[in-house]
């Protein structure tokens, strides 16, 4: 485990006030937050579930439920993007896809080096590392995934709704193998791919992909040899499930389970779907959406999921108020906590949900949001004690108000939008810092990596992340 600085210690409590009536904007400037004197920026909010201002009542502070000095930013990559999936290898390189910018117009796999540990903006650089002798033709839905157990980079291309090709690199993109043909006999769209240490026969990790196969539920396939060959496409849901074909990002847990989120089998609510046998069979686990409802937007197909280092399961979705909701399970998705709304109160709508978890109880949420003015910004919300009855949520806006991520489409968060396409992605690095892949639409769908300049680590001892330099518009 890499060492990190000590956390701010909670030593005293600020003046206590009842929680009731505390929904709204918080004070900014220098504040004594639970005994810590640090600057609260205008784009950082400390709140409880439901958007309740946490600075008016600190009785829930303590232990892991601790406020940290937290600031967000983003870094421009210099490459355009579409549906910006991403991955991070153990060597601290970040990877994402760039539509049409590879050799011969193929999908580029962009590698950003030194971004995670930079001390100056001049430290990092981004470049395409996809360059096989015979590049695979560009696809209309590019996708990249990094195996967290082996560092294998998987390039997963969908070709005009007709089929999938898979290529991979085990040396940070210096060389590429494949392509293998993942499928050829069903409509292909909205693909997702993941791995787990369940154990392949000829490779140390098992690989699964799911697609919308023009079926009543997604179709899924497994590879026991690291992506060289693939089994038949089988229903990714129980028999007679009528969930529709579009699935959220697939996740593989450390215990070997795979999860994906989607509309329930009865066509209502949201459910989590789990396989314990490598996508041969799936079970449905209904999420607690009674209070939140489900969004009546493009987000309505997807409930996002991730698992922590002990295979606890975390789910995120948008409610019928277009705000982000969260629930967790400590028993492999069999039962769920009550849902909570995790966004700050000043937002009137959000979209493109994505979630990432580190160690137990530490989770980050990525999304775009609007204050109701049709201008869209990027947000990261962090919880360091998700199992607490009143978890503290720290939310940052990653871009300046005068530098929006979209200002051309008033309904951007509720539909296919610019470089966001259908979805975004989020990963966590070895230091416990969350990274959110987004599109900066006004600059020509430029791929950007949003993160925390400062904040709490999501792995290891709860402590401050090392500081990164301020990014933003100067990096576009």
Attribute tags:
about 475 residues, mainly beta, six-stranded antiparallel beta sheet, four-stranded antiparallel beta sheet, 32 strands, disordered N terminus
What does it look like?
By secondary structure, the protein is an all-beta fold. The protein has a single domain, classed as TolB, C-terminal domain (Neuraminidase, 6 Propeller), CATH 2.120.10.30. Helices cover 0% and strands 36% of the residues. The chain contains no helices and 32 strands. The strands form eight sheets. A six-stranded antiparallel beta sheet has the order 4-3-29-28-27-26, with no helix packed on it. Strands 5-32-31-30 form a four-stranded antiparallel beta sheet, with no helix packed on it. The chain is globular, with a radius of gyration of 21 Å. Residues 1-30 have low confidence and may be disordered.
């Amino acid at each position: 485990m890499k060492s990190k600085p000590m956390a701010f210690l909670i030593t005293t409590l600020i003046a206590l006030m009842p929680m009731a009536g505390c929904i709204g904007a918080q004070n900014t400037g220098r504040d004594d937050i639970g005994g810590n004197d640090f600057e609260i920026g205008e784009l950082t909010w400390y709140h409880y579930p439901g958007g309740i201002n946490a600075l008016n009542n600190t009785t829930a502070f303590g232990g892991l439920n601790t406020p940290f000095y937290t600031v967000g930013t983003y870094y421009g990559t210099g490459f355009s993007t579409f549906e910006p999936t991403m991955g991070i290898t153990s060597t601290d390189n970040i990877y994402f896809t760039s539509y049409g910018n590879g050799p011969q117009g193929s999908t580029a796999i962009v590698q950003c080096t030194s971004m995670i540990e930079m001390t100056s903006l001049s430290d990092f650089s981004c470049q395409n590392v996809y360059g096989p002798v015979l590049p695979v033709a560009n696809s209309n839905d590019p996708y990249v995934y990094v195996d967290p157990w082996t560092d294998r980079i998987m390039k997963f291309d969908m070709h005009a709704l007709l089929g999938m090709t898979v290529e991979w690199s085990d040396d940070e993109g210096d060389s590429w193998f494949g392509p293998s043909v993942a499928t050829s006999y069903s409509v292909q769209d909205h693909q997702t791919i993941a791995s787990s240490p369940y154990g392949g026969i000829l490779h140390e990790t098992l690989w699964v992909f799911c697609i919308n196969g023009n079926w009543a539920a997604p179709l899924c396939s497994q590879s026991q040899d690291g992506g060289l060959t693939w089994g038949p496409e089988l229903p990714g849901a129980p028999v007679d499930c009528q969930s529709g074909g579009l699935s959220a990002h697939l996740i593989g847990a450390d215990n070997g389970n795979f999860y994906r989120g989607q509309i329930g089998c009865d066509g209502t609510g949201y459910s989590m779907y789990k396989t314990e046998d490598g996508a041969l069979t799936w079970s449905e686990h209904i999420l607690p959406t009674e209070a939140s409802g489900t969004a009546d937007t493009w987000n309505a197909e997807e409930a996002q999921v991730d698992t922590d280092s002990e295979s606890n399961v975390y789910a995120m979705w948008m409610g019928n108020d277009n705000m982000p909701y969260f629930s967790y399970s400590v028993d492999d998705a069999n039962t769920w906590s009550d849902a909570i709304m995790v966004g700050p109160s000043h937002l009137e709508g959000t979209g493109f949900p994505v979630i990432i978890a580190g160690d137990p109880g530490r989770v980050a949420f990525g999304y775009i949001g609007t204050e109701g003015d049709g201008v869209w910004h990027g947000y990261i919300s962090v919880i360091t004690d998700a199992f607490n009855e009143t978890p503290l949520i720290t939310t940052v806006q990653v871009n300046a108000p005068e530098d929006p991520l979209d200002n051309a489409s008033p309904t951007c968060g509720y539909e296919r939008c610019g470089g966001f396409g259908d979805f975004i992605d989020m990963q966590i690095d070895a230091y416990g810092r969350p990274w959110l892949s987004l599109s900066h639409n006004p600059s020509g769908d430029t791929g950007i990596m949003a993160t925390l300049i400062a904040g709490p680590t999501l792995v290891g001892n709860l402590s401050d992340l090392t500081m990164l330099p301020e990014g933003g518009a100067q990096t576009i």
